[in-house]
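Worked problem 6 (solution included).
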Amino acid sequence: MQHEVTSPVDLLDRKGHITEEGWARRPVWRYSRKAIRANALRIKEWDYYAVMSHRHGFAVTATISDLGFAAMFAIAFIDMDRKQAVQADAITFFPLGGTGLSPSSTKNSSITWANKQMRLAFIKNEDRRHLIFAAPKLTLPDGTVGIDVDVTLFQPPEMESMNIATSWKENRKAFYLNEKINCMPADGRIRMGYDEVKLDPDEAFGVLDWGRGRWTYSNRWYWGSASGLVENVPFGFNIGYGFSDRSPATENTLFYKGKVHKLEEITFHIPQSGYTDPWRFSSSDGRLELDFLPAADRSSAVNFGIVKSVQHQVFGWFSGTAILDDEAKVALHRFPGFAEDVYNRW
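Solution. The predicted structure is:
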């Protein structure tokens, strides 16, 4: 359990198996689509960003994903005060890797996409990630129309991240490579209707979910994330399970002052009464005990028979205690973030 990979290595061997499964504090696995032993329809690649403003009580998210049989693009706005989430999305068919997502999360890169309803651009340049995206016709919870985001996230070279490479028991050529970068200070502006809000790095933070893989057909996973300041110190967490065989390592991680503090197993206690009722989170090592008060459920459901997706990404506030590697305690009170329960069959 919790095998840490510390040296750079090719992700896959000649047979398409992961060369060394586990977790890492930095991206160490070299990813190549050519090494994947699968039809291009089975390869999944995605970049997902979420930026949350503690001061203004909202979050924006943007997604570019290439699922082989389809490419999916989405922009969402979550109003924590009004407890509503709205989204603009689009789909194109059979991109087969042609969307332009980078094979590396660390090298400079850019990707753009647009149609009449929305436009997105993700630009990685050294220690900055520039996000430009807009949905001019999206009706926001307060009734205004249109959102336009121009935000830069800062990722200092010394900042550690959560990295994991694991496979599935039923098919060891199916794999999941993922990096989660938390606690990136955000600077920029967001226009909502005719109003413009300035984001400041001391109150707004971004997270990147960078993923590449070949999945099995049917999966259900749980993921939670939060970033911010606790007593003026950068703190965040990434928690999740249910996706691939996690025997080599979990992705459960605390981030404090830019460093990783590794956790064991986490359990999401989701109420049967509904996703917007209070949740609870517990850890097998007792180092993360949280209550979660939901504000808004960003939900979607698609069912085309062989293709089905049911997603609940719930934004709200975490309260509880986290324990670092040195046994220091971090107390959280109404710390904004999100947690999700997703089922995909494709």
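Discussion: The radius of gyration is 19 Å.
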